[in-house]
Amino acid sequence: MTGRPEALFPLFAGVDTLDGVGAKTAKALEKIDITRPRDLLFTLPYSGIDRRRRASIQGADLPETLTVEVEVGRHLPPRSKGRPYRVEVRDAQTTFQLVFFHARGEWLSRHLPTGARRVVSGKVELFDGIGQMVHPDHVLPPDEAEEIPLFEPVYPLTAGVTQRTMARAVRDALGRLPELPEWIDPALRAREGWPGWAAALAAAHEPLGVDEMAATAPARQRLAYDELLAHQLTLALARASLRRGKGSVTAGDGRLRAKVLASLPYRPTGAQDRAMAEIAADMGRPLRMNRLLQGDVGAGKTLVALMSLLVAVEAGGQGVMMAPTEILARQHLEGLRPLAEAAGARLDILTGRDKGADRAGKLAALAAGDIHILVGTHAVFQPDVAFRDLRLAVIDEQHRFGVAQRMQLGAKGRAVDVLVMTATPIPRSLSLAQYGDMDVSVLDEKPPGRKPIATALVSTGRMDEVVGRLRHAMDEGRQAYWVCPLVEESETLDMTAAEERFRHLRAALGEGRVGLVHGQMPPRDKDAAMARFVAGETAVLVATTVIEVGVDVPNASIMVIERAESFGLAQLHQLRGRVGRGQAASTCLLMYQPPLSEGGRRRLETLRETEDGFRIAEEDLAMRGAGDLIGTAQSGLPRFRIADLERQAALMGLAQSDARKLLADDPALTGPRGEAARGLLWLMEQEKAIRLISVG
Question: Which of these, 426, 422, 430, lies nearest to 650 by C-alpha position?
């Protein structure tokens, strides 16, 4: 498959080849990402104007766009410069005026001669009790009035492009649609009642009413599905090509894992058992594992990670656990150490801090295979870090590592198995868009013994009361986090807010009892402040959101989040998850600045009602939209032109299973539906996928 199929050429020509689009309009269209007929066809109208004819403007709910047949009455030219030109007209029941600014009288007399009949369509408003249609959109003799669409689509525009230009160009583009073979499974299409591709495009651009423009209309569903299917095919091909990179079979005998289970004071949850079994089964296959472990805050990912690493050790290999920051790497070390000791496996850490002889010693032990499990930061990527036999890489908090780094890590060992852990519950539709190339294990149960966290809403006016309660809790030996508000995307302002709150609390609670961490501090100071808090030397830690991910201090049982309404739901849920890890009953206080916006109130109340991260994530998606949820800039979320991940979430799961099934039945896409799917990939510009097929 060397290049784009010839049938698609007309859709990939310049947009200036379309009716009514000159060089200037083409330049303007570029601003809204339209450079070819294909782009125009995938830019669907976002609303429409009802232009069905009425007998009269009387009784209409003005202002409104109306279409009526009129008899032209007298002309009222402007009395002075800058005033409008008016033409009186009469419909079946009443008289109103057509109003024109900067119009030439002779032109108007020619086009609207007194006594003639015309069909006019445009927005009618009341002005001093008289109906006025300013600059009608359409003025036509009755025998030509068919040209006015009954329902006129409204397109997104940019300066220099009119609705009329868009409509003309779209009509021309629709005339170029090639006959393409159907890539959707016929049974699925029949079940959903979806039209064919060309018919769907025509229906989406020529809707007969408002309901045909809804995300749920069959034509729109079909076009969204095409986009999602192309995306999921690309991910499925990436997954297949990764698996073709032969993995090594890593099968453990279970002896080390049994020791760990015997040392635990509790039984793993059903979800943990299931995830551990899925991972061990993947590692035992000759294909490379590429799995995502998605768990809510405190669902027990550490145990699952360690048991997976022990499979590698039992098989005579090594494992590595990567964390995005030094603090988190040390924390993983603390969390894993007692479990690794119970198993009799040697665990060590490598970060940017290791220097000289100390580092050299660790590197030698790694190369000799004496260190079984390494915990580390990006320092593990350095070229002189060599393992004797690396089998499994566990990566914590995916969005800090890109796909490229996953690949780089893979190169450290022969086709290393990869397990990515994320503590951010992501709604299924988004996790498929972002991680569709991976297999997913979900931890959706809390381990026994995790106490619920009491969550309360408090207005900032009660600050002194909160500080008083904090003093009382400190006297009982409890510890607290105090998270400062998010300030306008600016780290410097975040820092100032945090420093100010730190001074205030230090004055109220005592000099040495309050610590501070924020993003602008040198890493060494940040680690030192964290260490003092972990050791219990400070009772209150004032922080910006740097503590959002993974910090674990079992004695901390109070979380105060100031101006909670400025945070997103998922972030609030992450922050709250920093408490409730020890024996004490925990509290989370959401301080807000009244009056709350509707969205702010809904976010805080959702949080008060539930601790289920997946429910919170679904609610967050409904409220904020997909791009926002993971911050589109760094999310790796694809940009869809038609598909709407919030309103069409179910389609994504359908597209994934369909894509995987299609590739399972026809890995090289050479069958009739496979060939059609190649056409879809070209149409959706999934060149990456096309390269993967040709390599395959």
Answer: 430
CA-wise closest residue to 453 among 295, 273, 589, 643: 589
Question: DSSP 3-state assignment of 136?
Answer: coil
Distance from C-alpha of 351 to C-alpha of 326, rounded to nearest angstrom: 7
The string of DSSP letters for 173-231 reads HHHT-------S-HHHHHHHTPPPHHHHHHHHHS-SSGGGGSTTSHHHHHHHHHHHHHH
646 contacts 620 by C-beta, under 8 angstroms: no
Q: What is the distance between the alpha carbons of residues 443 and 440, in angstroms, rounded to a whole number?
A: 10
The count of residues in the chain is: 696
Q: Which of the 8 DSSP states describes residue 146?
A: G
Answer whether 0.85 is exceeded by the pTM: no
Q: For residue 690, what are its two tokens?
A: 């096309």
By the 8 A CB rule, do 666 and 259 touch?
no
Report how many helices (DSSP H) and strands (DSSP E) the chain contains, helices first: 25, 22
Q: What phi, psi does 558 have (nearest 5°)? A: -130, 130
**What's residue 82's pLDDT?**
81
Task: Decide: 347 and 336 in contact? Cβ < 8 Å.
Answer: yes
- The region that residue 53 occupies, defined by phi over 0 for left and psi between -120 and 50 for alpha, beta otherwise, is beta
Instruction: Give the position of tokens 């992501």.
Output: 426
Q: Are strands 290-295 and 53-54 parallel, antiparallel or unpaired?
A: unpaired
Mean pLDDT of 587-591: 94
User: For the chain, how are helix, strand and coil distributed in percent, rounded to 5?
Assistant: 45, 20, 35
Of 38-42, 225-229, 686-690, the range with the lowest mean pLDDT is 686-690
Can you say whether the dihedral through the CA atoms of 602, 607, 611, 613 is positive or negative? Answer: positive
Query: Vertex 147, ends 142 and 148: CA angle to 5°?
Result: 85
What mean pLDDT is reported for the chain? 85
Most confident of 399-403, 506-510, 519-523, 607-611: 506-510
Q: Which two tokens stand for residue 390?
A: 């690396």
* Cα angle 590, 595, 601; round to 5: 50
pLDDT in tens, 608-660: 988 877 777 777 766 654 444 333 333 345 668 888 876 777 888 889 889 98
Chain center to CA of 230 = 18
Lowest mean pLDDT among 17-21, 100-104, 218-222, 359-363: 100-104
Q: Is the dihedral of CA 651, 655, 661, 666 positive or negative?
A: positive
What is the percentage of the chain residues whose pLDDT exceeds 70? Answer: 88
**In the structure encoding, which two tokens stand for residue 490, read together?**
């600016």
- Give the amino acid at 8: L
Token output for 497? 């807010």
Q: What is the pLDDT of residue 635?
A: 38
Q: 631: Cβ–Cβ under 8 A, 6 or more apart, which residues?
A: none
Q: Which residue has the tokens 């669907």?
A: 44
Q: Calculate mean pLDDT across residues 123-142.
A: 90
* Residues 578 and 534: beta-carbon distance below 8 Å: no
